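Moderator note: this is an archived Q&A kept for reference. The question asked for a predicted structure of one protein chain; the sequence and the answer are reproduced below.
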Amino acid sequence: MNSKVKTSDYGQGEASFSAAGGFEGIKQLVDAFYDAMETLPQAKHIRDMHNPDLTESRDKLTRFLTGWLGGPKLFSEKYGPIRIPVAHRHLDIGPAERDAWLACMQIAVNAQPYQQDFRDYLMTQLYVPAERSRNKD
């Protein structure tokens, strides 16, 4: 983690990517996220939407977040264009599923050695793709 990143720099260039610990830090975040999904009772429904083997899901989310946070565009290099609504349209995702996803992410974010201002920033920003995945009320 780069402790030199100022709050005002998040979202600019590689500042968020750096604050997240680069690729390895994001991989740790994603692993903690899916670990939370395995254990959080309100996340059982969204866990059941995934394949039993989470290897590809972990890879896709790690690659997505790497580029989304200003690092290399690893998702599109391997999987093609990012189309969040299209990728999730086969799933019933409403507010409860979105909120369960965000709850897992909050647990994962809290488990990382991030500065508190970056944790707050990241959770605010993560609401956007979570909401874009929603396709029902």
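Archived answer notes: The chain has a mean pLDDT of 93.
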